Amino acid sequence: MTPPPPEPEPESVADRFAAAARDGRPDLAELCLLIGARADPALDGTAADLAQIELDRLAGLLPHGLHTPAQWAAALHRVLGRGHGFHGTPGDYRLLASSLLQEVLRRRRGLPILLSVVWIEVARRAGAPVYGVALPGHFVVGIGEPDGEHVLVDPFDFGRVMSRDDAELLAGGTDSYGPADPLDVVQRVLANIRVWAAPRPEHRGVQLWSLDLTLLLPRHPAKLRYERAQLLVTMGDFLGGAAELDSYADIIGAFDPETAETIHRQARSARAHLN
């Protein structure tokens, strides 16, 4: 009797994240839930499915017959902000959970960008014209047409409608309130996680996986490869870090040979730790 073929190995979170990021129409919620799954395996599978169900449930609570941006903003504030208490506080910046969509939906607290993801995904499911707006020091949500009638709301403040003065103050003198690309939103979420982990030596592993996921995005700053190499050296992987330093130096050597030679020296110094 011929034995049955072996079961295929399940795809890793990283593989699923890479595939989702390269989809023609990236799903913002799916990518954010995969970040949560990478942070904590308990947030994968059923927990991620329940998060999607919760977004659907919240969308179903919005009333029918909404037409204007102001009506959508008021309804979202009533359901998400006042009704379910989604908001943020300064203390949320100290928690990794504030950057994980599954946890934000459970706690109803989070960073501005994750709360904005909740607003975007709930409103989108209900049929609202909605988009994220990446201001220099904050993240908010636009409802309506970016170049026409629209309002900006601040999910960190329960979905309060922002005045033009509010927006201009947060924009730091720029007047760019255009829609943020979903992959740019995901990259900013991962950057927040790296910033959270960087001053905490016990969480260098978090810093590493957040870098690894960022490097799986179709576009990302090349300097992140240098950051990853330095992190590997800091974590004691001298050979791996040195190899990545050399690789990065080879890439930039064609247009910045002086910096490339400096990085090659760093690679030699990393290998010297093994002597």
From TrEMBL:
Coiled-coil region(s) at which residues? none
Residue spans crossing the bilayer: none
Q: Where is the Protein SirB1 N-terminal domain?
A: 54-190
Pfam families recorded: Transglut_core2
For this protein, the record's PANTHER family field holds: F-BOX ONLY PROTEIN 21 (PTHR31350:SF21), SI:DKEY-261L7.2 (PTHR31350)
To which protein family does this belong?
Answer: Belongs to the UPF0162 family.
This chain's protein is named Tetratricopeptide repeat protein
Q: What species does this protein belong to?
A: Actinacidiphila epipremni
